[in-house]
Every structure is written in C-alpha cells, then in structure tokens.
C-alpha cells in the first residue's frame, strides 16, 4: 500500500462514484459542490452512476456536499469528507475510490472487500 492510498500524504487522488440504488427505481437528481467547484445537476436513472475525481487539499479539509432529490424527498449528505474518508483512524477508513450507493433511507459507502456497506444518516 502506498502512503497516498493510506491517507498519509496531502493531495491524495480521490474518485467518488455515486450510484442510484433507490428501491422505488425512481430517477435521482444529484447536485454536488465544494467551496471551489460545482459539479452541476445530474439526473440518474435506476442503476445509473455519476463520478468525479479530485485531490484532497493540503490541510485535509476537503468536503464535497451533495443534494439528492427523488419524488417526494430531498436530502443532503457530505459525500466526501477528508476527516472521514481520508483518515486512517476514522471508523470507515480511507477510500481512494469512494463508491456510494444511494438508497431512500441512507447513503451507503460500499466496501472494497464486499463486506457490509457503511451506511450513514442523511444530513437533512
């Protein structure tokens, strides 16, 4: 394992993948931003995905927040947080490819080893 993939170096490369896994098979509208960048509004059909790449900033404070909308619901969630996703001491560990499955009750970060995904509460 390299130092960068272990979250030990600044500017580590990240690849976020968001997959629409809504059980109702509805279209998912996704809009992700951080302080410097707006990824635009993306419409994902059932099973479709959207991805983006970036590097963690020097102070390791990088955060990407996404809003999600599907019929009758809106929710927000920090899809990438350096303190959670690029920290070897975090409960869920470091991801260089951060794959998120979006379900109605929760956003879940898939595990590379195929184990149970790590699911989180919606922020709103």
Automatic annotation (TrEMBL):
GO cellular component, one term: extracellular region
Chain segments annotated as transmembrane: none
InterPro entries named among the record's database cross-references: Self-incomp_S1 (IPR010264)
Top-level taxon of origin: Eukaryota
Pfam families, sorted: Self-incomp_S1 (PF05938)
GO biological process: one example: rejection of self pollen
Keywords: Secreted, Self-incompatibility, Signal
First-listed, main subcellular location of the protein, grouped into a coarse class: secreted
Keyword NAD attached: no
Localization: Secreted
Entry keyword annotation includes Glycoprotein: no
Annotated family: Belongs to the plant self-incompatibility (S1) protein family.
Protein name: S-protein homolog
Lineage: Eukaryota, Viridiplantae, Streptophyta, Embryophyta, Tracheophyta
């Amino acid at each position: 394992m390299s130092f960068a993939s272990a979250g030990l170096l600044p500017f580590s490369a990240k690849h976020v993948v968001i997959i629409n896994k809504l059980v109702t098979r509805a279209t998912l509208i996704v809009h992700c931003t951080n302080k410097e960048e707006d990824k635009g509004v993306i419409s994902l059909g059932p099973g479709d995905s959207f991805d983006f790449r970036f590097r963690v900033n020097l102070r390791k404070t990088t955060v990407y927040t996404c809003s999600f909308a599907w019929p009758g619901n809106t929710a927000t969630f920090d899809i990438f947080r350096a303190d959670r996703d690029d920290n070897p001491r975090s409960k869920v560990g470091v991801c260089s490819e951060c794959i998120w499955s979006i379900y109605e009750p929760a956003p879940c970060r898939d595990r590379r080893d195929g184990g149970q995904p790590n699911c989180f509460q919606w922020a709103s």
